[in-house]
Amino acid sequence: MDGIISAWGKILRGIKPNLSIELTRECPLRCPGCYAYGDHHLEGDVTLRSLADFKGDDLVARVKALVERHDPLHLSIIGGEPLVRYRELGEILPWLAARGVYVNLVTSAVRPIPLAWAGLNRLLIAVSIDGLQPEHDARRTPATYDRILKHIAGHQVTVHCTVTRQQAQRPGYLEEFVRFWSAQAATRRIWFSLYTPQAGEVSDERLGEEDRKRVAAEILALGPRYPKLEASKRMVLEGLLEPPESPDECIFARTTHCLSADLQTVVTPCQLGGTPECSECGCLAASALTAVGRYRLPGGIPVSRMLDWSEAVGRHVGSVRSFVRPKTRAGQARTIPVRAVTD
Ligand code: SF4
Ligand code: SF4
Q1: Residues whose beta carbon lies within 6 Å of some atom of ligand 2
Q2: Could you tell me the pTM of the whole model?
Q3: Whole-number mean pLDDT of the chain?
Q4: Which helix (H) or strand (E) holds 331?
Q5: Which of 180, 235, 324, 342 could form a disulfide with 239, with the two C-beta atoms 3.0–4.6 Å apart?
Q6: What average pLDDT does the segment 13-30 reach?
Q7: How many structural domains does the chain have?
Q8: Residue 231 sits in a domain of what CATH number?
């Protein structure tokens, strides 16, 4: 509840409560269909690989300055592959934990995850696993099943699988996946997202409407039998099957400020960048927040309507804060611009 109140307070002040950063442009993997390295991930001719990124003390100092400026309640650290900068993260993560920031570190576990991170408060380590071993290893070498199992030992990670059409069309595939990962001591929870295509995309991964319904039904049926699988009915039925129609309706996009590896370039409209097909969005975070947004408060007002009003107040506060009128020594009002509340 404290978190919700803090988030609301920030929105009312015109500040997005969540921050997402692509920590580095580097990644030793070459996953087919990776959105981060797509030509249209960032605006204009800029690509993730063409951006300047940072390392060493410089990166640590820049990330700390960014967090101090935005003061997020929640920070997603994505890539590229964040573990490429594991030394820097060894300084950044304990500092974030001490500040009370909730952190979601998304990794392929291509290298060992330092054991020192296992005890950090509010740190969630999400390991991306693309299906069962044969399919995963074919897509994600060198971050193979064998390596992941070694590299997550001693941790409690979140296993995150993005379901593609190939997986959706194989009966029993998801259950086999959930059974395998539920049996691993290092698995704390299991999440499923659905593959989110870009507008106009033609690919083997893109799910059809029937695929989406079948996957949603299967996830719901598995939930009661596998306690590590997190999939509430509301999130699956209202989030995954009825995603927002556009970024303007997406609470996740509206409340998250996304920056690429130069820590300046803004990724729009959400972490995916480019022109995602929102009506087929399968992002778990977006689903969860969509479900929350459709929840009706006493009086029948949906939470999303409250967000509209709060953002309107926030925009007004932001515009007022853009101009302060301190008195000069002569007692005359002087208008000076200050840095926008959000970058
Ligand atoms: S690990 Fe992630 S960033 Fe790297 S290629 Fe694969 S999907 Fe892209
Ligand atoms: S998270 Fe999904 S619904 Fe939200 S803007 Fe991105 S693609 Fe669209």
Answers
A1: 196, 243-244, 247, 250, 252-253, 269-270, 272, 276, 278, 281, 283, 286
A2: 0.86
A3: 86
A4: none
A5: 235
A6: 90
A7: 1
A8: 3.80.30.10
